[in-house]
Amino acid sequence: SSILNHPPEERREFSNGDFYSGEVKGLLPHGKGMYSWSDGTIYEGDWDQGKISGKGKLIWSSGAKYEGDFSGGYLHGIGTMTSPDQSVYSGAWRMNVRHGLGRKEYCNSDLYDGSWREGSQEGRGSYSWTNGNRYIGSWKKGGMCGRGVMRWGNGDLFDGFWLNGCRHGSGVYKFADGSLYFGTWSRGVKDGKGIFYPAGSKHPSLKKWCRSLEYDDTGKFVLSRSSSIDVDELRSLSLSAVNRSLSMRTSTSGMSDHPRELTSKSARSLGSGQSEGHDKKNRVAYEREYMQGVLIRESVVTSSVDRSLKIRPPSTLSKQVSARTFLTFLTGEHNYHLMLNLQLGIRYTVGKITPVPRRDVRASDFGKKARTVMFFPKDGSNFTPPHKSIDFSWKDYCPMVFRNLREMFKLDAAEYMMSICGDDGLTEICSPGKSGSIFYLSHDDRFVIKTLKKSELKVLLRMLPRYYKHVGDHENTLITKFFGVHRITLKWGKKVRFVVMGNMFCTELKIHRRYDLKGSSHGRFTEKIKIQEKTTLKDLDLAYEFHMDKLLREALFKQIYLDCAFLESLQIIDYSLLLGLHFRAPGQLNDILEPPNAMSDQESVSSVDVGVTQELSIPPKGLLLVTHEPNSVSTVPGPHIRGSTLRAFSVGEQEVDLILPGTARLRVQLGVNMPAQAHHKLDEDKEESATIELFEVYDVVVYMGIIDILQEYNTKKKVEHKCKSLQYDPMTISVTEPTIYSKRFVNFLHKVFPEEM
């Protein structure tokens, strides 16, 4: 019976020169058969209703051949492809492209074994080079991206984060001689703070530290390329490894006070092998700070700083946090449910209001009845989907107002929803202030979600009509941009209020310093033992003044005056300027010390010619302003920007773009991508330090915005209390004319951004 059911065989030659020999069903190839195309391509294997399906072998005229599974005429399933250059891939296929687990041996004998997606390496995989290098870790779109380990043929090893084939984020570099560098990288070069342990010195456990790469300084799981190094912890651990009998320290004593001579001597000393700790007799650790591969600051971790660098015990720290956090119950599983509830509520809000035709807001849109309330049971309802969280109630405040604000800020509703409510979820970040608020960051860093106190919510809703008008009249406003206000009521009655804001530091550039500036000196400093790479510093910590183009500065202060006048009218006096700085490496050393595309670090700083070091005090020219070209830069508005392109005096009062050589071309807007020169302020009264500061002038890219505008002081008692804490005279401030704060605030900023003489 099997013989009777077997399809008949045919030999058929077509007019175009193609030839088929095999089983058919009707007029179509079906079963086993061979097809030869006129160009020399040959297939032999299974057919199904005229399509190549099943097992088979395909040989192209170019010499390439594939043997394995087919489906519907596509390479689909498991198979082996040998290319004309003799590279061989064996593994999974989907619709003619490599997709799934597979192994590829290249013509030069390089080997990749791991996951593929749409034809490129993506997921977990291992790549071995013929020169002995090997990488094991995460891939994305054909490049090393995410967590991974690279071992070089010379014995060096890097374990940390990667982006587009370059080291990017936290990591540890272990040299063949046993020395280690714990730090951060940006686009393949060291960028930020870290600690170097010379060969022979004791260092923190590599296993323990590498596990900590997946957690931030709050202990939360983040697994992000932007993870920062905990220098304080490394510094503390390194103290036990320091030789207690060490008598020689690195300090600035004995050096000339002249900046140029100081820089020359520092550069020469750091260029020696001894400064790198290769002398086994000097078993010390070096705390360093790099800027795009250039070493700008170094201090020696010795027993002499043991007392000043001690970290508080964890029990003490946890008591402080619990005392100031008003949402102490939001830990562990509760916090997880809260994030899920927030995502469900925002998805519901945006999905409901977006289809409503746009109209101008009315007075009723700001009123107490302008609320949307919905109950989200775990099993779902006629209006809500089932979910994996706990039952909760959702309240959305002034939905039409915030819908219009989002459109005014040129945010796409779908992108807004996917950014916050996508599968990647939210990341909890530690609070930089004393409010005790909890902050969440969207997976793409575009939005910050902050918990609010009831009093802050009242202030926001009361100011909302005037806020709406102000941001509508002034597209360049520096005031925080709000995109939505919501409240979640959990099943046991606890109410949590949120506001969604734009992240001012959402940029492709690394933010090296963050400052919260109020124009006050009372308590406005950060204890040294608390400073980490992403710590938000205060007024007295700012050691720079910034010089910028005449027209850029004029535009900045024009808007600051307008925004301060608006806040004065609302009786708000406790706002801050949030300042972010991206430092550019001094151009004279950038190429000498560490090439941007170097795959292997050389921890020893190259010797620098005396003629070069003598010019280090000359202001660097690492930034370039050019005439704005819309087609050359991204004009898509970010979550924190909306305004026009700024004009620069130095470019003939034309709208300008900022070029960062080898990095990017950026559109210059108010508070975003603003170029300046940072001049280091030397404090002659300051005690000598073990830290060597190599440069006095840097090119910087400035980001800024006005924050903390939800503290209202509308009674005499509140004003007097706040003025006392800020060292102002409360007798000079009336409840109806709170101008002293804004004047002091603006005067302070004039010192920070001085006018050129």
TrEMBL record:
The record's Pfam families line, in alphabetical order, gives:
MORN, PIP5K
One cellular component term from this protein's GO annotations in UniProt = membrane
Which Gene3D superfamilies does the UniProt record give?
2-Layer Sandwich (3.30.810.10), Histone H3 K4-specific methyltransferase SET7/9 N-terminal domain (2.20.110.10), Phosphatidylinositol Phosphate Kinase II Beta (3.30.800.10)
Compositional bias (Polar residues) at which positions?
264-275
Q: Where is this region: Disordered?
A: 248-283
**Annotated GO biological process:** phosphatidylinositol metabolic process
Reply yes or no: does the keyword ATP-binding apply.
Answer: yes
Q: Is Transmembrane helix given among the entry's keywords?
A: no
Protein's recorded name: 1-phosphatidylinositol-4-phosphate 5-kinase
